[in-house]
Amino acid sequence: MTFKGKYRSLGNCRQLIELELSNNNLSGSIPGEALRLSTISIFFSLAHNQLIGSLLSQVESLANLVELDLCCNKLTERLSLAVNSFDGAIPPALGTLWGLRELDVSHNDLSGEIPSSPVQLTDLNYLNLSLNKLEGEVPKQGVFLNASAVCF
Q1: Judging by DSSP bridges, how do beta strands 67-69 and 43-45 pair with one another?
Q2: pTM score, two decimals?
Q3: For 82-114, how does the pLDDT look when each residue is reduced to its tens digit (9 = 90+)?
Q4: How many other CB atoms sit within 10 Å of the CB of residue 152?
């Protein structure tokens, strides 16, 4: 991650429960140490920056997190939030992760309507929504048109 000004390591923040870094003109990959802060339990935002890369294995440490906001970045490859205890509706903000190619939110307690927000992700070629409590009509656009790319 590139900061304008001095950057101090987050690795020693052992009691941090909320981290707001949105709209800071941050660029580059998200450092693993920021995603390994297992004490963050309320809110973590890196929204509206210039972040790139993948979060595949790193978000597992954020198992106690209530809200994660990564919208309006340039994240690529995979975002896996599978096998957690996330509940409630899938947030529409997922539709703003423009470079995302694979999204896996399986094995959670997500509920509500099947979201149409992934339709906006033109690079998305794999979507796993399985083993949740989603309901309603499956959208008929974008990644939902490719039956082999979507798991329910």
Answers
A1: parallel
A2: 0.64
A3: 888 888 998 887 787 777 888 889 999 999 999
A4: 12
- Predicted confidence band at 1 (pLDDT cuts at 50, 70, 90)? very low
**What's the gap between Cα 96 and its chain centre?**
10
Q: Which two tokens stand for residue 104?
A: 């896996």
**Cβ-based burial of 133 (10 A; exposed 0-12, middle 13-18, buried ≥19):** exposed
As a dihedral over the C-alpha atoms of residue 116, residue 119, residue 124, residue 127, rounded to 10 degrees, the angle is: 30
Residues 6+ apart with CB under 8 A from 147: none
**127 forms bridges with which residues in the sheet?**
103, 150
Give the pLDDT confidence of 127-140 residue by residue, as tens digits: 999 999 999 999 99
Q: What is the 3-state secondary structure (H, E, C) of 18-80?
A: EEECCCCCCEEECCHHHHCCCCCCCEEECCCCEEEECCCCHHHHHCCCCEEECCCCEECEEEE
Spatial contact of 110 and 85, defined as CB atoms under 8 Å apart? no
Give me the phi and psi of 143, to 5 degrees please: -60, -25
Tokens of 31: 């450092």
